[in-house]
Amino acid sequence: MRNRVTWFCLSTSARMAKADGNAASAIAKVSEWADEHLRLIRNISTGMAVAGMILFARSIKLTSKFSKAIDIPVEFIEKNVKLRGRLLQITERGLEVEHVPITLPFFSLWQKRWQSNGALVLRLAGVELTQSGKTWLQEELKPSQMLWFQLLRRDNSVLDCFVLVNKGGFFNVCINEEVLRQGLGKTTFIEGPRKDSKVYWKLQKKLLQAELKAQKKGRGLWKERTLLEKMFTSSALLIIFTYIPKEALFSQTTGSK
After folding, report:
1. Are 88 and 40 in contact (CB under 8 A)?
2. Do the beta carbons of residue 86 and residue 97 sit within 8 Å?
3. Which UniProt keywords apply (predicted)?
4. Which residues contact 132 (CB under 8 A, 6 or more apart)?
5. Cross-strand bridge partners of residue 162
6. Does residue 127 contact residue 180 with C-beta atoms inside 8 Å?
7. What are 21-67's pLDDT values in tens digits?
8. Is 90 in contact with 128 (CB distance < 8 Å)?
9. For strand 158-166 and strand 120-124, is the pairing parallel, antiparallel, or unpaired?
10. Spatial distance between the Cα atoms of 127 and 132, rounded to a whole number of angstroms
């Protein structure tokens, strides 16, 4: 009986040792194969990572080219996203711009296959342009010039935006403000963002400040304005936007309805 138990223990140990040897051998073979095909594994990993990035970027429309206002997701407008574009021409409707989306390295040719041709029509938000202002835009902005536009509202096929142009280095000029600063237009209330939001408050205040500068210096359409007219335009509105808390202002407005 003792001999049988001894034989069984030895036999089990031998089988376990053989199994361990086979496992170690298999691991060694896999490790050896991985060493020999390390470049292939790295390429596969890189390819999977890039593919994942492309799918993610496409899912959130980062690489999509918008050729019509309706193509732009509602979330982009609600979050006032900034997009890049190339100016095509300036018409009575506004600035016609070709949207230039984010380009992924090594995949620019493929991206072009997905992209459609077309132009977005941009309107300067919060600005009522004079005829001189339209002429100034034609002279200041050139075809093929790159610019950024911050989305504020979609009005059928037209986008109300703040348009930014680079003037060298990190210096950008907001065209909406510059037109008002030169006295080439009047400030209007911005449509799109909620009237009690920080975005609306900040942008509307900037426009009023730009217009006030033109009034003080008598530029453009403000040359012929009387002192009384100047006092009760941008100055009065700017005081409201500067010193009255927006919560109090809009709570009174909504409460009176």
Report:
1. no
2. yes
3. Acetylation, Membrane, Transmembrane, Transmembrane helix
4. 184, 220, 221
5. 150
6. yes
7. 554 565 555 456 555 555 554 555 555 544 444 444 444 456 788 99
8. no
9. parallel
10. 13
